[in-house]
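pls read this protein.

:::
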Amino acid sequence: GRLLWSRDLPGRADAVFPIGSTLVGVTGSAGEVTVLDARSGARVGEPVAAMVLSQGRVAAAAAGRFLYVVTNSGTLKSLDPARAAEPWAVKLDAFGEGTLCDLAVGEGVVAVVRTGRGIQAFDALTGEVLGSGKPTGEGGIAAVSVWPGPLIVAACPAGGGWRLSALDLAKGPEAAWELHFSKAGDIVVAHAQEDKVFVRVTLSSKAVLAGSPATLVASVDRATGKRDWEHGIPDGRVTPRVSVQGGRLCLSVDDKMYLFGK
């Protein structure tokens, strides 16, 4: 392909993500979020200042044409860059209590995650508070994802491995179901288009023995949390790439491809 455009940025770009079909969001290490026209590279509006999370990521996420950010003063904002509009803004309660550690968007929900205070969910269109919950575990929330339902699923360290807790905030703050993975490592949660959810755990080097799998993948029933199956993948020179389509899980590791499903 040919180069369509290039543009100088105010600092190092940490992440790039689409905002609708015509815009691109770029986050920088200092917390700035720059919106560019995907067709020309022209900047759209002024950069937005967002909080830098404890892991170094910027508290910004997009869904559809909307951009969501948490500012340094503890305000969650919905922005519509194409229309230069701010549909809503909500001051997070007791913002000084707990470190903001994640921001996730999906299924019409914006989920704000804070260490020590759990998860608070907002309606993505109106900013209305939908509820809150605090998953159980031995440490802070390491990963969060919003699934159809909607269910907000969080991964917390537990028993040397991970505990997945699914929160249905429409029914209350208690977990709808919990599922434990006994091996330590980095966990990635991705949902399928149907009723199955796929989980990937890249095991830590201490948990991997010679000749044993380096990655675990599992299929989980979205409604009940029941584990349908679990498989181990041998070690590879790169982190496994994952895609989900039609209720099937596809992984590529080095020069091999794996397809899981029923």
In short: The longest strand covers residues 151-158. The two ends are 38 Å apart (CA to CA). Residues 206-211 have pLDDT under 50 and may be disordered.
